[in-house]
Amino acid sequence: MNPNPQTHAKLSSTDTRDHAPGLLWLVVVTSVFVLFTVPYTTNLIPWASREGFFPLRPALYLLALAVATIGCTLGRKPDFTLTTVVILLFHFLYLVDAAVLRRFDHPSGSNYAMMTHGAVLLSTFALAWFIGAVHSLTWIPVMVSCASTVVICSLVNFAEWFGVHSFTIVMGRAAGFWGDPNNSSIAIVVALAVFLTLNKNIWVSFGLIALSFIAVAITLSRSGIIAELLVIIAYLVVSCRRNPKAVTKALSVTVPLVIAAIIFALSNMSSKVLREADVKDRLGALLGKDTGKMASGERMKDLNDGLKAVRLKPVTGYGVGAGTAKWQPHNQLVSVWIDGGVVLAFSYIAVLGLLTFKCFSSGLHGGLCLLTLFIFIPFSQILHTHMGYWMSAIVLVNSTSTRFFSVQWFKPNPSVS
Predict the structure, then answer these.
(1) How far is CA 212 from CA 154, 157, 165, 191, 238, in A?
(2) In terms of pTM, does the model score above 0.90?
(3) Residues 155-199: pLDDT tens digits?
(4) Structural domain boundaries of the chain?
């Protein structure tokens, strides 16, 4: 799963990235990266700002930490690839449509789309720069960030489930700082997939799997549970080929604990919550009593409305924000198409195509990351604004690529082609 260590040696024998990182530098870059990513992958700062607990505007915090994230890697040459550039171009096109063309009046205000996609472009650029500068040295900052996201989202879900605080917009379903139970499950599953891609310790991986599975289960998110199961199954298949004995031992410990924890959690549901129609339908579907409830008739109607909107205006779309504020098709590709027509839709398809090519051409390295990039597309419309989603994409790029071009900070080395 790690990039070819010979790649940089071919470029320059004096490249500082081939040297082992110092402990102080590692602590600094990990701390800065976690402070940059985790508050947004968990939705902590947006939630705290809305509740009046956070003194700074989220945009200012994002700007300061993005600059710090890039700044702590200055002196090292970050790697980029064509795929990275295409990802950034996709977000740049989104920002241009939102900030310059302004074809859709967003209900949250005229600056909402511009600020949202400006923040996404900034954060994606900072992610690409940082990971491009450190990936040949260490994946520890990314691993700590993803593990922190899984742990924080899970613990907040547990706190809500057992009545410590209420965050959810849907009674009876844990949602944590996200408020939306489905978004909480996306954050957990995407972060888990990146961690499992990079981590080598079976027991740590299974501990995080157990924690995340329980946390996703109590969101009662059908798509989240399906995605979690597929990621776990894919990980088990790969891990069993490498170390079947260790996997068997880990399963024998974690499976009974997970089952007991879920039974305990479900037993704490109040009779009032159990009478809620949405909760009853979801429990019936997830427990196998009524599998017909795995599909949502309301969501199918939303999707059909979105597809109709695409057919009516396929070339130009309706403007950034329309795909989430007006139609809400619960499908990422349809949402992007509604926003920006064929230009944004095909840009998004190009990103996914390049990522798929990289994954398969490297022998399915980063396959878990690729799985999460695709699996939520039929269920969600917020992926293009989700920092964790693009972290997964950039990790996939840098862990599978063998050819990079670097940003030169100092006098170019003539030996670099």
Answers:
(1) 6, 10, 19, 10, 19
(2) no
(3) 999 999 998 999 999 888 999 999 999 999 999 999 999 999 999
(4) 78-138+302-404, 155-295
